[in-house]
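Box 3.1 A note on notation
Throughout this textbook, protein chains are presented in two layers. The first layer is the amino acid sequence; the second is a token string describing backbone geometry. Keep the layers aligned when reading.
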Amino acid sequence: MKNNQDDIVNFLKKYGFIFQGSEIYGGLANSWDYGPIGVLLKNNLKSLWWREFVTKNPEAVGLDSAIILNPKVWDASGHLANFSDPLIDCKKCCQRFRADKLIEENVKNASVTEASPLDELKKCIVDNHIKCPACGSQDWTDIRKFNLMFKTFQGVTEDALTTLYLRPETAQGIFINFANVQRTTRMKLPFAVCQIGKAFRNEITPGNFIFRTREFEQMEIEYFCFPEQSSEIFDKEINVIKNFLENILNFDKKNLIFKEHKKEELSHYSSKTIDVQYNFPHGFSELWGIANRTNFDLTTHMKKSGTNLSYLDSNTNNKIVPYVVEPSVGLDRLFYAIVCEKYKNEKIENKNVEEKEETREILKLPFVLSPYKIAILPLMSKHKEDAKKVFLSVIDKNISAILDDSSVSIGKKYRRQDAIGTPFCATFDDSTIKNHTITIRNRDTMKQVSIDIDDLIEFINKNI
């Protein structure tokens, strides 16, 4: 059964994954803070992506470029001219909306896109009698283009000469560093430059929880290659993404769609784009994108900057401007998709004596993503100090663990660890002192085994 958005949001707030941004001041629309559990899961997800897409790929290197770039970068990339959404206002309530999204949500099989002419979008809204979602009016303004980049200023005066922008994507920082990376690493085509970083877009209609926000984090790869290699690398990266989602994260294939853009839907820099869509609570929407950006980016930056960004092919002694294949995923969207995929509210079968509830919330994360790998749970207050020693010995081995020495029942402690995705609970009780054993409970099966306490670290490493 598909989870709804309210259940997911409430669950994440309840257990410390995500909080409303600026909550004590009434919040800020679509601003979210990652709590103690959420930041652990988010960091594990970044590490897993880096391991699979960078560390394991001998053709890949990393980069961490600046958020604020010379404004000429955005002129060259086309963001100043083209990075905009079609904006329409309701004249009655003054609410603003993306025209293409209004049509998408109200007209089945609409033939228009965000790239369609503005008069065509307006005609579609009028002809289909689309009402304002806020007040029900059908009195609309004309549609105009709204640039999505956040402006800021450098220096002490706010004039056009000092206008800067928060980056709307991480890709351009890679392109303008192409020559630096290639020179210092001596990489030969094909090679990939990868980075994880913040990006900012002044979205007209952010929403659907952390699916679309104005501040977000991207995990992005720019794969530089010979033009004739681009199709092969494109297909290879699709397979790597597919394997990551289906075999490493264990997503249900029914919740994934690989959708190729039609020609009229392509961005100005792309010759081919495929979106990996996930079945979020609000429906199938883009999770991951992969585009063949051709040599557009390096060519335009060469022209605008006057810097040589070509590549010398040592085999032919010819200079070329490499093509680029770009797989890009929003970290926040992937985080959301994982929680939607792994959160269950299930009936408890074959309960242990101490587990009295009929149902439990559980986050069946892959162990590698679990915020904590093991919870150390003293059964009674007299066990607290000895249990703490075990806990300290575990984290000393660089294993993420949690000690719950609260006074609640052991069954409730299990419930909390199930909910935050902890794979194993180790209960410290009288037998631990008497027999030097500790009881391990498995999150998914709820089965328990006793092991020698000296074997605990080996058990964790073996199973996780």
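The mean pLDDT is 92. The CA atoms of residues 157 and 163 lie 10 Å apart.
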